[in-house]
Amino acid sequence: MSENLPSTPSDPAGAPPGTGGWVPDVSPEAGSLIPYGSGDRLPAAPAQIVYDLVKAAPRDGRSDTEDVVVTGVPVNPPEPPPSPWALARSGARRPVMPTWLRSWAALRSAARWFAGYCFHTALFHAVRLPFYAAVLVWRAPRGLGRATTGAAGWLTDAETRPARATAIRREETSEYLRLAKLRDARVRVRTIVAIAAGLPTIAAFTITWMATPPAVHLAILAILVGVLGMLGAPADRPLVGPAVTPTKVGRLTADIVVRALESLGIAEINKARREGGGITFPAPITRDGPGWRADVDLPYGVTVSDILDRRERLASGLRRPLGCVWPEAVHDAHAGRLVLWVGDEDMSAAPAAEWPLARRGTADVFAPLPFGSDARGRPVAVLLPENNVLVGSLPGAGKTSAVRVLLLACGLDPTCEVWVYNLKGTGDLDSAEKFAHRYVTGIDDASIEAALVALRDLRAEVVRRATALKNLPKDLCPDGKVTRALANRRSLGLHLLVAFFDECQNLFTHPVYGEEAGTLATDVIKLGRALGVVLVLATQRPDANSLPTGVSSSVSVRFCLRVMGQVENDMILGTSMYKNGVRATTLRPTDKGIGYLVGATDDPLIVRAAYIDTPTAEKVADRARAARIQAGTLAGIAAGETPPEPTERTSTILDDVLAVLPASETKVWSETIVARLAELRPDAYTGWGAEQLTVALKPYGISPGQVWGTAPGGKGANRRGIERQQIVSAITDRSRSGGGG
Ligand SMILES: Nc1ncnc2c1ncn2[C@@H]1O[C@H](COP(=O)(O)OP(=O)(O)OP(=O)(O)O)[C@@H](O)[C@H]1O
């Protein structure tokens, strides 16, 4: 009904412009709408509550924080409760335990915060102690003066002096005499008290002074000066200031949201507002995590993408830092439904939530792995089985750190086999050496070739797994895919195998290995999904040349940190994402580790990846290694085994094809060659068809032609095949150019 109702134009007759519209009835029969400006009630309608601020926006100098109240019905939360029972029925029950007591992690985090707070406060004041001392000394004479005047005033009953003066002025002799008598009595008593208390005190003080060493004298003097200094403090200038200045974040109200949306300069919004239609609120603005959430229906014709384009202006309109303002589309609603979440704190400035596995615990790679948190501070996890992950951004936005989170999580599951190819050549992922089966870092040809060999091996592994899975009894593998139960049966070799390729553009753009690598990666992504082989690819150059289309279109989980343009955005996040308002282009250079995550949850989500610094990563890797030693699964490079044989690493498709083409055969059918290749290296070539051979040889400029041959039955035929001489020439060229092999 919210969309079907006229927002405002159907004002009751006679309502002056700017006073009509609809606001929700918050009476127990919630759902009815009250036309404001008329005082009439519409019949109750069982519908969604619509908050319409078309004409309620502040144009009359009201402050932002004031509620918009029209005909006595407030639009902005919190609303005066119509009846406690109605409120209780409709309200969400607050959790019995406070959030910080609901898990050990939360409790630890709260305790850490408190300890940090105390430490900071203590340090803050400790540094200022000399200053405090100087101020106290400066104020002590005034304090002494105040103390003396106060004591003299008390002894002489100074407080009744005005009463006596009044009696004298009014010439009330008897009243004056009564007051004077009273004063004399008081002064007498007070003098006796002063002598009785003062003389022993002075005596005790003198004895102590004479009996104690100079250090104690100093302490006594310091205390005296301190007390006098405090007595001498001006009322408006306290000695000690607060160590933490609380950030006061204003409430998000409908007025503020409307004002911000109006300030975006979107013609349709302003036109709709002028005509009395416009912005409605399908739900009250509520607290959601450490911020406010407003659900907004934009005027007809305005889409959420229009708003996302102007996030910066929106932040200005809301008077909040950019990193606090996170507008989102609601993908299962209409294109004009906006969810605006406004955080109390800039996301990039807020401390990142600690990675739950940073200090203790192991992981289960068949369950979602903790990855980071969303803008609202809710944990975000990524499921690896049946997925592949692509991470992309401009240099330095936090790709490797995001990859490291997944890498260490995989390491913490002793059943998970991890291969790491850091083609950036830095030591960012070095901690993985302690538990990974394969670990290579470098940007030289040898490292890139090693990555290619890994992809070949992965492809062969996929083929092996497919056969292994097919041969399993159906009751063990009802869904035809690798499961935790199958992974636990070590002998089957169906555990999860996750291969990480950081800066994978260096592999895919390699003049010799690039094309084959692209084909292999696409195959592995497409075929390995259900077979427990997962690729995690990170690239800082997401364009058509650096990321094969087969790869960019097939990965299912995508994390895009800051990028420059629409092409890169859609390359990483998927086609039309930019158009749909999922724009990593709006992120700022300071938004390190923050990006859009697509595929891990139903809707794209803005996520801050957990940040694991190098010392912590080393400790996590130690735990991962220990867990593997205990489970008996430490293998490969982490167990000191030698990396794959150099012959294997340097052999290429050219060498293998030449190996199966004896000099006696000048031209051979492609199908014959792949059959021989499968015999030569079953692990690498089983399952290959003539098509794959064509793709694999294409980078070397070799394409099949028509070849006359004889089929097994003895019948001659013309089919597609390869000339041996082409292979020989390609190998010669490669050797001349120093291309390896
Ligand atoms: N989640 C995060 N939270 C806070 N800071 C982060 C986060 N991720 C990364 N950073 C910061 O950003 C810096 C760069 O991160 P990282 O090396 O992962 O970027 P990159 O995109 O891989 O860079 P390059 O493209 O050069 O490889 C880190 O040193 C760290 O200071």
UniProtKB/TrEMBL annotation:
<feature type="binding site">
    <location>
        <begin position="393"/>
        <end position="400"/>
    </location>
    <ligand>
        <name>ATP</name>
    </ligand>
</feature>
<dbReference type="GO" id="GO:0003677">
    <property type="term" value="F:DNA binding"/>
</dbReference>
<dbReference type="InterPro" id="IPR002543">
    <property type="entry name" value="FtsK_dom"/>
</dbReference>
<feature type="region of interest" description="Disordered">
    <location>
        <begin position="1"/>
        <end position="39"/>
    </location>
</feature>
<protein>
    <submittedName>
        <fullName>DNA segregation ATPase FtsK/SpoIIIE, S-DNA-T family</fullName>
    </submittedName>
</protein>
<feature type="compositionally biased region" description="Polar residues">
    <location>
        <begin position="1"/>
        <end position="10"/>
    </location>
</feature>
<keyword id="KW-0547">Nucleotide-binding</keyword>
<keyword id="KW-0067">ATP-binding</keyword>
<dbReference type="GO" id="GO:0005524">
    <property type="term" value="F:ATP binding"/>
</dbReference>
<feature type="transmembrane region" description="Helical">
    <location>
        <begin position="187"/>
        <end position="209"/>
    </location>
</feature>
<feature type="transmembrane region" description="Helical">
    <location>
        <begin position="215"/>
        <end position="233"/>
    </location>
</feature>
<keyword id="KW-0812">Transmembrane</keyword>
<keyword id="KW-0472">Membrane</keyword>
<keyword id="KW-1133">Transmembrane helix</keyword>
<feature type="domain" description="FtsK">
    <location>
        <begin position="377"/>
        <end position="570"/>
    </location>
</feature>
<dbReference type="InterPro" id="IPR050206">
    <property type="entry name" value="FtsK/SpoIIIE/SftA"/>
</dbReference>
<dbReference type="InterPro" id="IPR027417">
    <property type="entry name" value="P-loop_NTPase"/>
</dbReference>
